[in-house]
TrEMBL record:
This is Olfactory receptor 10H1. Keywords: Cell membrane, Disulfide bond, DNA-binding, G-protein coupled receptor, Membrane, Metal-binding, Nucleus, Olfaction, Receptor, Repeat, Sensory transduction, Transcription, Transcription regulation, Transducer, Transmembrane, Transmembrane helix, Zinc, Zinc-finger. CDD domains: 7tmA_OR10A-like. Its main location: membrane.
Length: 496
């Protein structure tokens, strides 16, 4: 034991053990064999120790009591772990991020976050888990098994933790106190989250910091330069460039909601984010993200009116009408941000607080939530987001269907080229925006890794806003000439 000799290896996953008995118990996880059955409820277990622990739930026996707080436990090792809370001892430390734990088993599960290893797969839906307990709790959703029953009200639960939290409502016990409070939002005992999106790239964090800092500065300066050019050039005071200016503002705010925090985490060893800060980040990122989508839809409508109904353009796209379209885009984005944030942060977060992302994103937060309505909220939020994005995309697609039909009716090749060139920059940004969005929201179910989720999140969060000003600057001839003129007038005022 002292020299860590492990002569017994599992033939299924090659995990090694010090004793043959431990190996046999482990192999039953792979074979599904459960020879030890509870006489009272019939539930079966792979080891006699697990059976004895389970039987204590029926008998209420807890022979091991903590001397400091009087709390009792069914197993001596549970008491040992609990006593470390009082002493503050965390002897097991993660080599990759330095985080310390009370028990070696918890350290092993934590290390799987860095390695992306999820050896326990659900037979029903294929979802993978780092811990066999998480798999068992998840499988009860499919089987609808609720073995833990409250003695006072008879309500049944899928996990012992859920029962334990429920019993506190009868006792009036509230052991978790939040530092901050948000009206109408359920803190659930979690006062902060840990962002571990970049923990799998410990040696590349400085490289990522420099790269993302340069891309963020370029995005910020590029959008500001576009706005300044439109503001200073009178020939660009048209609805098309008013919408482009609003789009630049939404991109600046969207990147400001996520990237500065991400850059700070890349330099820091502490990646915690307060509950309120996490909710705020989600609200603003969804607000400005959906505002961006709505503005792209409005810009598609503007191009449709300009090409298909040029004689009625000034009537249909009046200054008042354009202002209303921009205002409704911002209102729609704010509504989406409010709906998604309220739905997610009204869930109960009980225990785990490590977000497998570099920002407060919906899917990793849903994995931390517990309760019977998590699945309903997940489906509802997903349906709302996909419906909004798909609706915007279909409206843009419809606009361009009419635009292409109108362009094909133009007799001269030069006229067709000129008409299409006014749409090229907008169409390119739409393809980039919805291409990366589809990767995030429509990715197929299957084995997931922290590295893959992080890299896909970067494409939509950092790369899309970075490419947008480049595309508009290079593909829009009128804007490009105005930017050249504005740039040269600052360098050589005597020439202009």
């Amino acid at each position: 034991m002292h020299c860590e000799e492990r002569p017994y290896a599992c033939k299924y996953c090659e995990k090694t053990f010090t004793r043959s008995g431990s190996l046999r118990c482990h192999e039953r996880i792979h074979t599904g064999e459960k020879p030890y059955a509870c006489k009272q409820c019939g539930k079966a277990f792979t080891t006699p120790t697990s059976l004895r622990c389970h039987e204590k739930i029926h008998t209420g026996e807890k022979p091991y009591e903590c001397k400091q707080c009087g709390k009792s436990f069914t197993l001596y090792r549970y008491l040992q772990r609990h006593e470390r809370i009082h002493s503050g001892k965390k002897p097991h430390e993660c080599k990759q991020c330095g985080k310390a734990f009370y028990a070696h088993s918890i350290l092993r599960y934590h290390e799987r976050i860095h390695s992306g290893e999820k050896p326990y797969d659900c037979k029903h839906c294929g979802k993978a888990f780092t811990h066999s307990n998480y798999l068992r709790c998840h499988e009860r959703i499919h089987s609808k098994e609720k073995p833990y029953v409250c003695k006072q009200c008879g309500k049944a639960f899928t996990t012992h933790n859920s029962l334990h939290h429920h019993e506190r409502t009868h006792m009036g016990e509230k052991p978790y106190v939040c530092v901050a409070s948000m009206q109408g939002i359920n803190h659930s005992g979690v006062s902060e989250f840990i962002l571990i999106g970049f923990s799998t790239f410990p040696h590349l964090q400085m490289v990522f910091f420099l790269l993302f800092l340069l891309m963020y500065l370029f995005t910020l300066l590029g959008n500001l330069f576009i706005m300044a050019t439109i503001w200073s050039e009178r020939s660009l005071h048209t609805p098309m460039y008013l919408f482009l200016c609003a789009l630049s503002i939404s991109e600046i705010f969207y990147t400001f909601a996520i990237i500065p925090r991400m850059l700070a985490d890349l330099l820091s060893t502490l990646h915690s984010i307060a509950f309120l800060a996490c909710a705020s980040q989600m609200f603003f990122s969804f607000t400005f993200g959906f505002t961006h989508s709505f503005l792209l839809t409005v810009m598609g409508y503007d191009r449709y009116v300009a090409i298909c109904h040029p004689l009625r353009y000034n009537v249909l796209m009046s200054p008042r009408g354009c202002t209303c379209l921009v205002a409704w885009s911002w209102v729609g984005g704010s509504f989406m941000g409010t709906v998604v944030t309220t739905a997610i942060f009204n869930l109960t977060f009980c225990g785990p607080n490590e977000i497998h992302h570099f920002a407060c994103h919906v899917p990793p937060l849903l994995k931390l939530a517990c309760g019977e309505n998590v699945l309903v909220v997940a489906r509802g939020v997903g349906l709302v987001c996909i419906t909004a994005l798909l609706g915007c995309f279909l409206l843009i697609l419809l606009s361009y269907a009419f635009i292409v039909a109108a362009i094909l009716k133009i007799p001269s090749a030069e006229g067709r080229h000129k008409a299409f060139s006014t749409c090229a920059s907008h169409l390119t940004v739409v393809i980039v925006h919805y291409g990366f969005a589809s990767v995030i929201y429509l990715k197929p179910k299957g084995p997931k890794s922290l590295e893959g989720d992080t890299l896909m999140g970067i494409t939509y969060t950092v790369l899309t806003p970075f490419l947008s000003p480049i595309i508009f600057s290079l593909r829009n001839k009128e804007l490009k000439n105005a930017m050249k003129k504005a740039f040269l007038s600052k360098l050589y005022p005597e020439i202009i």
